[in-house]
Amino acid sequence: MEYGKKFSSISPSPTLSIDAKFKKMKQDGIDVVGFGAGEPDFDTPQHIKQAAIDAINRGFTKYTP
């Protein structure tokens, strides 16, 4: 498969690189605290979900000025 020229100029994600290093260190038995990528292990609180829905319904879907 061939990729376009712009594809080769894309840099790897620093966050994913840090996360890979964290996982390797943890696998090697090193006690580390990971501050890289991750997924929360809890649901978003209902009031935050509702605030997001309300903002979308009011058209607040752009970046701040």
Walk me through the structure.
It is a single chain. The protein has 65 residues and is mostly helical. It has one domain (12-57). Helix content is 40%, strand content 0%. The chain has helices spanning 14-27, 46-57. The termini are far apart. The mean pLDDT is 88.
Give the termini separation: 42 Å
Low-confidence runs of at least 5 consecutive residues: none
Please trace the helix and strand order, writing H or E for each element: HH
| Overall outline | flat
How many strand segments? Answer: 0
How much helical structure, as a percent, in the residues?
40-55%
Question: What's the domain count?
Answer: 1
In DSSP terms, counting alpha (H) and pi (I) runs of 4 or more, how many helices?
2
Q: Structural class, from secondary structure content?
A: mainly alpha
Largest sheet: none
Mean pLDDT: 88
Q: What's the gyration radius in Å?
A: 19 Å
- Into which percentage range does the β-strand content fall? under 5%
Key structural traits:
flat; 65 residues; mainly alpha
